[in-house]
Amino acid sequence: MADVLEKPQTPTRHRLDVDAYTKMAEAGIIARELRVELIDGQIIDMPAIGSPHAGITKRLNRLFGRAAADGLVLVSVQDPLRLDRFNEPEPDISVLKPRADDYTTGHPSAADVLLLVEVSESSLAYDRGIKLPLYARFGVPEVWIVDAAGAAVEVYREPCDGTYGSNERLSQGRLSPSLVPSIAIEVAALVA
Fold it and tell me: Which neighbouring-strand residues pair with 106?
């Protein structure tokens, strides 16, 4: 027994769950003005939003807003998406299934998502390397990454085993979410 007590232990990381993360925010430990999200139990600082990022997000909100006005979708801008107890990212745009309570009783989950959009001005590697596989792992059906610097939209569909089976990069043409085909966006106008 003494051998076990004296044996040095390897340090391990402590992962925060969403409940602890939320309580930290409520207590003011995480300031509301900070741009952070919870990924795999770690608080991730997000870069400041530049004008191109903000403008593209507003443009998408306006374009998807037409479908929201018709009751086809609910559009959420930079709000939490609860994937599991250790993951609560904040995508730039979430196009969600409409719900009578407008998600006041709980954040949406992957099952509620029709389309997620990440606008990448300085976070392209992070969005592709960390967030995209996370979304695929939880079965988010479609993700668009708007590459502001590259003036293109990357479209990812068919999630399977932590990756997307279909992807394409567009700099022109019309683009529609596969689950909401009535929405059509001119790619060149979006990234201009």
Answer: none
Strand ranges (DSSP E) for 87-184? Answer: 93-96, 113-120, 142-147, 152-160, 163-170, 174-175
pLDDT, one tens digit per residue, over 40-80 is: 999 999 888 999 999 999 999 999 998 888 888 999 999 99
- The CATH number of whichever domain residue 136 belongs to comes to 3.90.1570.10
Residue 14 in domain: no
Cα dist. 21→14, 30, 70, 148 in Å? Answer: 12, 8, 35, 30
Question: Could you report the per-residue pLDDT of 138-151, keeping only the tens digit for each?
Answer: 999 999 999 999 99
175, 155 contact by CB (below 8 A): yes
**Number of domains into which the chain is organized:** 1
3-class DSSP state for residue 168? strand
For residue 4, is it within any domain? no
The domain of 137 spans 49-191
pLDDT of res. 1: 53
Domain membership of residue 181 (yes or no) is yes
pTM passes above 0.85: yes
Over range 160-169, report the average pLDDT: 96
For 167, phi and psi rounded to 5 degrees? Answer: -150, 150
Q: Which of 37, 41, 38, 35 is nearest to 15 (CA)?
A: 41
Domain presence at residue 80: yes
User: Which residue from 163, 22, 177, 178 is spatially nearest to 93, judged by alpha carbons?
Assistant: 177
Give residue 5's pLDDT: 61
